[in-house]
Specification:
Largest sheet: none
Oligomer: single chain
Mean pLDDT: 76
Structural class: mainly alpha
Number of helices: 8
Length: about 220
């Protein structure tokens, strides 16, 4: 299996050479006033590092998971940005708290469904405590994920796209007046209406032809 995937890695390495040589050389020459020979050494070193690290990092990502690698990269970005004092902690905390509250409400909303699996051998108070603890831990995980994501990615977003509306201005009056926000709201409402209509029509037609409908399940 490893020998079969080796050509794939070589293909990606060749794609990296073809895509990055020109922009790297031109950028280095214009920014640092370098000669062609010296500027060409910069992408060469980058390609060497790519060839040495692409396969180990791919194996590491396959073993630890994409989410872990993403969070690790965001933590590295946060550490680098903290030294420049460029992290909006308050904004990240607000988004994290909102996400945590929504996740907690969603978990508590599932309590009637989880109650059907209540083991009668345990006390009901211990079951309630377990459900609340699991919901709280899940909410803390979701809030922490959003906190790290906003703290790390928001600074990169502002630097890469300075002409776009920032996250802090998205829900202010200035952001609400933008054309992008208006189109996004219209699109979201339209898609929600289409989905509700589709689901309603689907169950009406399915019920007419004898298909299963969740509304007819008797819960005793």
């Amino acid at each position: 299996m490893r020998l079969r995937t080796f050509p794939v890695f070589l293909a990606f390495l060749a794609m990296g050479f073809a895509d990055a040589v020109g922009p790297f050389v031109s950028l280095a020459k214009n920014e640092f006033h370098l000669s062609n020979a010296v500027a060409s050494l910069i992408p060469f070193v980058g390609f060497v590092m790519f060839g040495l690290l692409s396969i180990p990092m791919g194996v590491f990502q396959d073993r630890r998971g994409k989410k872990f690698v993403l969070m690790l990269g965001l933590v590295v970005v946060i550490v680098m940005r903290v030294r420049r004092q460029d992290v909006r902690w308050r904004r990240a905390a607000v988004v994290g708290l909102v996400g945590m509250a929504l996740s907690l409400c969603a978990s508590l909303n599932q309590f009637p469904v989880n109650e059907f699996g209540y083991p009668t051998t345990d006390s009901y108070s211990s079951f309630l405590s377990q459900q609340f603890l699991e919901a709280l831990l899940s909410a803390l995980g979701a809030g922490g994920l959003l906190f790290v994501l906003i703290a790390g990615a928001e600074t990169l977003y502002r630097e890469a796209m300075p002409n776009q509306i920032s996250l802090g201005n998205l829900f202010r009056l200035r952001g609400l007046r933008t054309k992008r926000f208006f189109l996004g709201v219209i699109l979201g409402i339209t898609l929600a209406g289409i989905f509700i209509a589709y689901q309603t029509v689907f169950y009406i037609v399915a019920y007419r032809y004898g298909a299963w409908s969740p509304a007819d399940v008797p819960y005793d």
